[in-house]
Amino acid sequence: MTRIKIGQVGLGRLGKVHAQNIVNAIPNAELWAVASIVEEELAYAKNELGVPYCYQSYTEMINQNDLDAVVIASPSGFHTVQISQALEKGLHVFSEKPIGLEMKSIENVVQNIESSPDLVFQLGFMRRFDHSYQYAKSLIEAGTLGELTSIRCYGIDPHVGLNDFISFARNATSGGIFLDMSIHDIDLVRWFSGAEFKSVYALGNHIAAPQLSEYSELETGACLAQLSNDVVVYLLAGRNAMHGYHVETELIGTRGMIRIGNAPEKNLVTLYDENGVVRPTSHHFPERFREAFINEIQSFVNAIIKQTPSTVTGVDGMKSTEVAIAMQQSFDEKKVIYL
Amino acid sequence: MTRIKIGQVGLGRLGKVHAQNIVNAIPNAELWAVASIVEEELAYAKNELGVPYCYQSYTEMINQNDLDAVVIASPSGFHTVQISQALEKGLHVFSEKPIGLEMKSIENVVQNIESSPDLVFQLGFMRRFDHSYQYAKSLIEAGTLGELTSIRCYGIDPHVGLNDFISFARNATSGGIFLDMSIHDIDLVRWFSGAEFKSVYALGNHIAAPQLSEYSELETGACLAQLSNDVVVYLLAGRNAMHGYHVETELIGTRGMIRIGNAPEKNLVTLYDENGVVRPTSHHFPERFREAFINEIQSFVNAIIKQTPSTVTGVDGMKSTEVAIAMQQSFDEKKVIYL
Amino acid sequence: MTRIKIGQVGLGRLGKVHAQNIVNAIPNAELWAVASIVEEELAYAKNELGVPYCYQSYTEMINQNDLDAVVIASPSGFHTVQISQALEKGLHVFSEKPIGLEMKSIENVVQNIESSPDLVFQLGFMRRFDHSYQYAKSLIEAGTLGELTSIRCYGIDPHVGLNDFISFARNATSGGIFLDMSIHDIDLVRWFSGAEFKSVYALGNHIAAPQLSEYSELETGACLAQLSNDVVVYLLAGRNAMHGYHVETELIGTRGMIRIGNAPEKNLVTLYDENGVVRPTSHHFPERFREAFINEIQSFVNAIIKQTPSTVTGVDGMKSTEVAIAMQQSFDEKKVIYL
Amino acid sequence: MTRIKIGQVGLGRLGKVHAQNIVNAIPNAELWAVASIVEEELAYAKNELGVPYCYQSYTEMINQNDLDAVVIASPSGFHTVQISQALEKGLHVFSEKPIGLEMKSIENVVQNIESSPDLVFQLGFMRRFDHSYQYAKSLIEAGTLGELTSIRCYGIDPHVGLNDFISFARNATSGGIFLDMSIHDIDLVRWFSGAEFKSVYALGNHIAAPQLSEYSELETGACLAQLSNDVVVYLLAGRNAMHGYHVETELIGTRGMIRIGNAPEKNLVTLYDENGVVRPTSHHFPERFREAFINEIQSFVNAIIKQTPSTVTGVDGMKSTEVAIAMQQSFDEKKVIYL
Fold first, then answer.
1. What is the ipTM metric for this complex?
2. For C267, which residue in chain D has the nearest alpha carbon?
């Protein structure tokens, strides 16, 4: 059996998910090396996951090892550079989203990606690999919904993480709620509709976390948009879902409507207790998208082995970032932005 | 507009529901008189409902008033006698279930009912008048389920009433869980299937209320039965639903399955909170069957005005009691009873 | 028993609902007279409902009869004049929404209403009288949701009525989708939040009914708004729900989320068939809001008898119309409108 | 990384599921050899799964290969012999259920298993490894339900397989619906309750497939049972669920109720279409228990590597078979059987 040798950079919360999946769930890959500047992360990789080679430097890792591919799960600011470095070394690349933070460097890295058609590049929009989303996509492709008329996407992080985010925002600058969170939904809209965004108008508030106003952050961000084909789109991002991790997508078509994650049920259990009839919920992204994270890396590895094209391209990363930036601009300037 | 003059006996919990409905929701009826041995009940009728004539004696009420009909909501032990008295006076009769407590007097009263074909007699199986049950019946009649193969009926009283029942059981003798509670489900099985019970086998326990064993009462009673047409039936009665008032009926047919009250949702509200995704529930029978109680009396009044036959007959009362008694016997004697 | 004598003008689809409810479900009111220019409607009232007095002229009706109150269910253009006429005659007034079509005459009629504080005036925002909406309101008032942060309202008419609307639009001018349909949701937002609209931005399309573009009508209308207290609001109106009549309201607060009508379940029946697990749905507004229509007239009659203030005022009608007009303007002028 | 070398016998429908999982989803195992008398199955293993060693004979396979463990997915009649043979060769054993067909040989094989405490033996009750079932178990262990009072288990195969079963029954003898299907539910009852069956009473019919009566098979089999701790149990097995593969378990306790698979939702998609609000369903066991099948083999492999005890023992297989046989006897003899 061919086994793809992977080197991964970054072993934070999401990085750990990828590393564990490569080791425990993907027989035709192996986690051959990791790079991190965090001592504990390297110790974890070595001791818990049995990774043979551990580096403090990404460059060193890709120079010294006989790798087939890299998985980039480092902070967003490093993505474009690390992608380009890996491509130069002839390595296949899986990179977490966003592909980058500003358009100029993103355009450059997309050019690099397109100049290496023999190397697989895949961006980490894992929702596309979730069974529910794939089932929804198949219904749309089968014509079950007719033509799309309206899309609604909610991405609301669990309340339990709110204080952590407030602490983070006190000390650092995030890309803002639209670039951080809505970007996944922007990608879904493009994927489901096959169309591009034409205009965006964004609003927001921080009623649930007034402190955020000091750090120029929103707790709730909302956007009304229209696509090139006139479909109406509503995007809501938030940081305070009491019931867990609420990612929901609604697709209204001329012949029916679909909701994915209307309720983020944890499993098939229903509890009847003093609260009423209760469906327990997924509480965070690793739980909700557990299988999707496995599937996306498996898909990346299979694309390398079978030499098939990637399913989430650099252009997907560029386009979604462009829309997210326009949403932030709309909010900042209090006006409709046309793309 | 014709307005049917009603005299009602009994103004306990269920009696109050009927009295209020006659006054507030049924324009073509009026609550002309009430009879009760409880002083407060008569005061309530006079002051809150504006009932013109109040009696301590049922006999006096039906003798002295120019009534069209009676509503009997007195303790079960009085039903057969009061029904026969009213019929003798030429009054239409609506009686709460059960029609009686033992077969001999029930057979007599059914004979009296059948000897008065011009008088409307209706028994209080209100579930038949619930929108959900009527919708289910219409689906069955339309053939949506094909032929029935299996029926499951749950009737579980809310936990909040358990202590009251334990107190009641300490001081009095109920008919037992099957005669008290399963009788509604027995009627539903007969109504939905159009068939009669062939055999019953009953079990039970009082794990949730061990004190009940002292009073020879069950908290949970279960019965596996078979109908004349081979349909398999499972009946579960209980006194301890933590989530409210759980009345559920399942009908499996050769072409599909229906569940009525799978979750006893209070309304169309869904609450997403720290418990998960919650459907609040109906908490007691007046809430769950609020409309059904109005509809059954409206149906009774309309039958009188339009001279149409009753929809829930004395025979329905007799047959369901017969089955409930057999279930109790099966439990007592630990064997299958054939009817 | 006091019985309020009602005269009703208009017996179209909605008018019939009111007339039937007054006759069949509200014992302390009677439908004493009706006025209509449609012969069949008068015949219906006389023959089916037994209404004693029938007029072709509204003015004649309110002049010649000893009425207590009027119910106005005539075309929207007549509302303001008929309300003022009735108030002048000293009659209590229930009027269907909208209170009027343009702001000048609405302001006048609101002044007339406020000059008659002894007369009950109630506007037909029946959703406020629906059990589910009232339950949601009680949860909000109990603080279950904390402070509101975001509201979403959907009002989507059933597909089965789309062709009728297209025919109507061919021959007549509606007020547009926002004034026709969103007005109910605008009222709900004001009712639930206790706040007023600050800004609106509207979009739309007619992908599901391209013919509507010829008549300057939308099939889908969407609006992103913000309230005076910063709450974010999304309103979606449509004319093509394949699954029935979809009225849904979502309230997100700092401590939880509520959805009312997430799925417009017809009743408590669940059908398991070759399509999957199916909840049958309400198919039109008389079905979905059957009880609410009874409750709102009952509430109006009770307010008259008990001399209590109205629950849906002229100002509620004026404010909601003002917002709906601003939404249409936003759509026409493609810009954010500040109120 | 240690990789457990597995030899598998039987590559029918369920065998294929196991073989694919070992190859595609379990990095610390490899499918080293297979045995089958069906030529196509061996070709499939060789060509599609890349299995190195293929045998026509089970004995030959376990004699000639340096295996660590066997997976037995052969017809039920071979299980006891093949288990004992493998144990003799010092191999760890995973066997599909049932452990055997009659009590004598089962008792023998259980003795063999218990005489080899260093070898892992695991029986294929995969439901225990399903996330929903594991979550339910954790709730019970946490005391969320209080003490159990009543359990209900449904196992209804999809209608689409009914004709295949009829053909099968024409030519062969199954163990009957209780031994074939209810055995999974019997195991769940034992697992959840920690108690043993005390009495069983079974009924059945073949209304949905009258032909089955000729082959002494049931389409619907039902059983009312009581456990040693007085818990009431209802088991329903069927072969004709129109909506898919219906496996449901209900646990009622003194403090709440749980349903697992109340509706066998395929995923998080809800479809709103002309049928109503639809949850698409799982259509067969490989779909519903996809993850559970992976988890049970992963658990077996991990138990070998970590030298931990098995989670589903030979005794579990023996006890569940004993109850299933009693249910069949109860049906045949039309009486209550006490165990």
1. 0.96
2. D276
